[in-house]
Amino acid sequence: MLSLGPLAFAAPWLLAGLIVLPAIWLLIRITPPAPRTVAFPAIRLLYGLQSPEETPDRTPWWLLLLRLLFATLVILALAQPLIGAKQDLEGDGTVVIVVDNGWASAPGWPDRKAAALDLIERAGRAGREVAVFPTALSESAALERGGLMAPEDARTFVNGLAPQPWASVPAVAAEHIEAASIQRPASIFWLADGVEDAEDAALAERLIRFGGLTIYEGGEPPMALTARIGEGNALTARVTRLGAGAQQIVNIRAAATDGRVLTRAIATFAEGEPAAEVDVELPLELRNELARLELEDLPGAASVALLDESFRRRPVGLVAGSGFAESQPLLEEMFFLDRALAPFSEVSRGTMSDFLERDISVIALPDTGLLPPGEKQRLFDWVEKGGTLIRFAGPRLAAASLENRGLGESELLPVRLRGGDRSLGGVLSWSEPAALAPFEGETPFADLPDYDNVLIYKQVLAEPSIELADRTWASLVDGTPIVTAKAVGDGRIVLFHTTANTDWSDLSLSGAFVEMLRRIVAVSAGVGERAGEGAVPPVETLDGFGELGQPPASARSLSFVKGEAAEVDFEHPPGYYGSELSRTAVNLGPEAAKMQPLATVPAGAERVSYGGGDELDLAPWALTAAVILLLLDFIVTLVMCGLVPGVGNARVRETAAMLLLAAGLAAVPLAASAQSTGFDPSSMSEEDRWIMRAALATRLAYVLTGDPAVDEISRSGLSSLSEVLTQRTAVEPLEPMAVDVEVDELSLFPLLYWPITSAQSELTPNGVARLNLYMRNGGTLFFDTRDRIDSGSGAGPGLQRLRELTRELDVPALAPVPENHVLTKAFYLLESFPGRYEGGKLYVQQGEGDGTSEVSPVIVGSHDWAAAWAKDDAGFYQYAVVPGGELQREMAFRSGVNLVMYMLTGNYKADQVHVPAILERLGQ
């Protein structure tokens, strides 16, 4: 390759063709004289019997230059001119490309693939053999082990590579490299994923023995997402990044099994912190639909956290009435149980028979005496299959125990009970109420705080036994059990030795009651099929980009060990294991969260970054210019030979030919400069690029509030409104843009949507001046207080904050939109302007409805329009509209369409105010 500054030639030997240009010049400079039209009267045969000798004419210099330029362009095109050409690869041996294609390579996979294809292209130009070695095993491991191949085959091989959902195995790649017949000195390129591996050092040492080693770094770094049940049964997402860095915001999407986006959450990395956490909040009715969490715009198996039954809210049945002897509705106990279980469970009331006929995780049984034999056996079978029975003591259980001189475990109790009860001042009594003892031992209550303010006045006592200590989950300060439990088959029976209401204790009034019930429900399994322990087959698995699909042929059954996390590898990819009815999630996130930046670089290795610039091939443009010159030569020749009608005079013909030549020569550099010497947007500043984006297309805009969640709603809502405008009107706006009123150029947007939040900072004098200038020059500020201002009601928090923000602005007097205002008929005929809410007023400049003034510089509403418009990536609406449902959402979109058309067309439709009078005159 020959380099001349930024210009290089891939086939420089073809430039030798320029030597023949003098010969071409000598050949084309001579041209026969053009034929002449001569009158032929017969008398002229008597004259000029001896013809004068004629000498050949010479080609005009400008035509000679045209033809020489044509030949030069053809020769240069054949020499493959390049701008920004990469340097030739060092050495003359094999070009070895090691590609990290484990889970960490997914976010930056396009960069790695482009780098590999670029290296293959350079190797092909040099006529060198290529060897490609991926570091992660794949489903077709035998076919994708890599090896020596021609550049064309290597290109096909790389195009077929994809990241895998497990870690790289550098040792396997090293073995394949050792087994290959690599010609030395080789050029070694390691396309690293940036994550340290224990075997990286050994791989690097082996590679550097074959020749010069270049390690590619950078690109999109990976992140790992994990999920857990946090305090208060909240779903907590934890995001881990590769190393610590500056403050960073990532978006987390919560999706259902069918792909619907249920909600979004924003996790913020503090500066210098490698991890960030956020609670994913969902309404009760959507929690059990949640199937996965994923990082938006960051592909990869580590960016996905699959959720299984352990993350779902357990259904709990409260037995409100049954056919049991001596039973009656216990409304007081039901009230306390319902209030305690509702925050983290799906609570339903019914009879015992109702619950036993359907899949339910937990049955809570308030104070009950002896159970009928039939019901008792059915309930016992249900517990054995995995159900959790929570029983509570009380007068009925104490009476049954006293009457039968104690109750045994056969009565669906975790321990044997003594007859009667222990009460304050009774036979089995204490002189003062007893408090709860600190929670100890390996029980679900082990890490709960002390609740020494909870007092127990009465309880049923357990008979002392060898198993009593192991079955005691909570006790009083005097050592007597207050909560006992026993495993029965796959299920569990739990007994509170006091009542569920305040008759015997104040436990039900404390936070301890809620936390204890939450822990019991959390460890329940339910009666459905479970993956359990032992080997279970894969049902669905993730690929390298985090997409769920059928398991690969290499996937094997996975053995779960209680208390241990499953290990992800080539034979056990992340995904769901078990059966279609009950699946256990195996995620890559916990393992990937341990990642560390690549630090193993041997001495002598060169480190480069991905995306070092693209080569620009000028050959197509040179050939295009040559063809243009050839056509010009043809046209000029026709003109000079007199074959173009209407051009008869020789001087006229020559002048026309030179003009054609000048036009053609001017067009040649323009054709080439469109690609080779055109304006480079990358040389612009960030501010200039922002202005170009805003100026070159119609876009809606929203004001940044300082609240990332609200800003995301604004972006999503305006994006959806832009789609509706494109579909229904002649306005075709592109993606909306965020605007900082203190810094950005405002005049590029006719309308600024401004949601009001408490996080919005006060306007500076500069911001006030900029906004006042914007309004004076025809711009409109659309304030959305999002608190539904009702006519005659007091100011809501949004309106109060709006008054604080705009006290220095030149806001005109405002009034509700009048009946015949242009806004009501700018596109649709509207009577109101609902958003996510309805019922409030929309305010515009007072007196603006008469059609004689300009567009209102300020519009104020309270219906949270952006939330009504906002859609997720799957096309589903993110927020419900109340109270009108989807019909109200359609009217919200129509309100947005009218608003935009009003901003763009002004009072263009103001004459419609007089339509009734016009129609009346036409009728006359």
UniProtKB/TrEMBL annotation:
The chain crosses the membrane at residues 6-28, 61-79, 621-644, 656-674. The keyword Transmembrane applies. Keywords: Membrane, Transmembrane, Transmembrane helix. Residues 8-81 form the Aerotolerance regulator N-terminal domain. Gene3D superfamilies: 3.40.50.880, Domain of unknown function DUF4159. Residues 699-904 form the DUF4159 domain. It holds the Pfam family BatA. InterPro entries: Aerotolerance_reg_N, Class_I_gatase-like, Double_TM_dom, DUF4159. This is DUF4159 domain-containing protein. It comes from Nisaea acidiphila.
